[in-house]
Design a protein that fits this description.
globular, binds ribose-5-phosphate, alpha/beta, 14 strands, five-stranded parallel sheet, 8 helices
Length: about 300
């Protein structure tokens, strides 16, 4: 088995390799002055099962193309199979036509992955459970919820004075799942309205009771708007301690500042997305998915 990494999250690739008792294989990702990439696998892969670790976070298109080129390079060099570990799957939110005339970006991505002979994809906490159905190749859909449930227990936040919260109705299945992992801990949801043209978020209504402590669970934090607005709404309804668990720290532009200055007490994310030093903030805690991924690759 050989493991290669794109440029998106080398730290995660190293952690996975180390848990598997192997090293990350060398590759060259040469960037020409015009931005084009020339990619070469620099390890012998003939008849090997190859793993490529590459979450497709911003710059999304560049990261996807590195993944495609690495897969193509491995297959051309004789790899028996290629498994793409894409803990965060870019474009997953555009999984259908929301407004007339739009592209279904996710379908284009999946077709391209299949056309470069990727044999299997491993990903985490996809936006909807329908996404694996878009793939014709095996797609392993893992979840960080167990990791989150363990941390919630460890911190002593699984008691009677706490309620789990989904910041939108779309997260109902996720919140039901983590509630089950925490012995049917109570949960509630917030009704969120997003302007489809601008992406701006407004919190409409909290459906259930708000307790002293709340634990918000979401799949991703992008602009941070959903979490900041949800936390404000919960504070107004009487919450005193607010903790957030979200799998993917996509953290675009102002998100770290927004979260640090929000009424949230702590933000837990995973390393599905690499968080550079300049995006770290004091409320942030990062849990690693490397053990779960290494197990899935056994
Ligand atoms: C949306 O439905 C998702 O579950 C997340 O809540 C959303 O993508 C987060 O985006 P942002 O941080 O930009 O509000």
């Amino acid at each position: 088995m050989k493991l290669f990494s794109g440029n998106s999250n080398k730290l995660l690739a190293e952690k996975i390799a180390s848990r598997m008792g192997i090293s990350v294989s060398p590759s060259e990702i040469f960037i020409f002055p015009d931005g084009e990439r020339r990619i070469q696998v620099q390890d012998r892969v003939v008849d090997e099962d190859v793993i490529i670790v590459q979450p497709t976070t911003p710059p999304v298109d560049t990261n996807y193309f590195e993944l495609f080129f690495l897969a193509d390079a491995a297959k051309r060099s004789g790899a028996r199979s290629v498994t793409a570990v894409v803990p965060y799957l870019g474009y997953q939110r555009q999984d259908h036509v929301f407004r007339d005339g739009e592209a279904v970006s996710l379908e284009v991505i999946v077709n391209t992955m299949q056309s470069v002979s990727i044999d299997k994809v491993i990903s985490f906490d996809l936006h909807t459970i329908k996404i694996p159905e878009v793939f014709s190749i095996p797609m392993v859909h893992l979840s960080a919820l167990e990791l989150f449930a363990d941390e919630i227990k460890k911190q002593g936040w699984a008691g009677l004075d706490t309620v789990l919260v989904s910041p939108d109705m779309g997260g109902i299945r996720r919140i039901e799942m983590i509630s089950k992992l925490l012995r049917d801990m109570p949960y509630t949801t917030i009704e969120k309205n997003r302007d489809l043209a601008t992406g701006n978020v407004e919190m409409a209504e909290i459906t259930g009771e708000v307790t002293h402590r709340v634990v918000i669970v979401d799949d991703m934090i992008s602009s941070g708007g959903t979490i900041a607005k949800a936390a404000e709404a919960l504070k107004k309804r009487g919450a005193k301690e607010i903790y957030v668990f979200a799998t993917h720290a996509v953290f675009s532009a102002e998100a770290p500042k927004l979260l640090e200055n929000s009424v949230v007490d702590k933000v837990y994310v995973t390393d599905s997305v690499f968080v550079p030093k300049e995006k770290e903030f004091s409320k942030l805690h990062i849990l690693s998915l490397s053990e779960m991924i290494a197990k899935a690759l056994e």
